[in-house]
Fold this protein.
Amino acid sequence: MPEDSESSSTATNTDFLSRFSNFVDQNLQLIQRSVYVAGAVVLIGVGRHLRLHHRFTSSSDIPPRFYQQNVKLLGTVRHRDKDTNVLSVSHIPPLPSRFVSLFTRSHKEKSNEDLLKVSIAGVQLTKSGENWIDINIVNRNVWFKLLESPENNFIPAIITCRIKKYPVRTNVNHLLVQKGFGRVLDRYDEEPTSQIYASLRSQLLSAEQKAVKKGKGDWENKSGWKKLIGWKTVKRLFKKKD
């Protein structure tokens, strides 16, 4: 009798495995799709938490932790404000547009009010710099690293993008000062609120000093007061170290 019981149990297990195997074979595509759906649900949940789906349209849309962690965002530069030289940037969310429809009910057409106001941190553009931005940056995709909380809705950022003659993404802030197309902003009464901003400022001051000595860009043919400006830059560097 025990042998008959064991034989019956083995037959039942074999029959179950056979039926399960047949079910898998017959419904393989359904099972695969279910796995994909489950993965998509997880992705949507993560996207909601990290706001990977959200298109930021103002500085207040961006979570405070993004500024604190110096997060990089991607966007398209639509135009440069002629009065402030601030870049109007259309933010591009990390998730593709087909996923965005899962989170939002409707989509408004892009307008100037939907654009982020991004400033080139630490740099005051010269006339040559304004022209360079219009030619090389406007209507291009750029990455912008958030440095600190915005002032007057202007988001100070390090701008990087691919530019002709440069094999890798270029730091636009540094390049403008290096070419003599921009000057370092006089913001020395208060220390920057982030270490990255302080490091950027130090690099910009060094680049400005070299541009002055070599007569780059707008420093060209200004030998009469070039040394004076260069000396001011050196004083800033020493002040920073102190």
User: Anything to note?
Assistant: The longest strand covers residues 72-80. Residues 2-26 form the longest helix (25 residues).
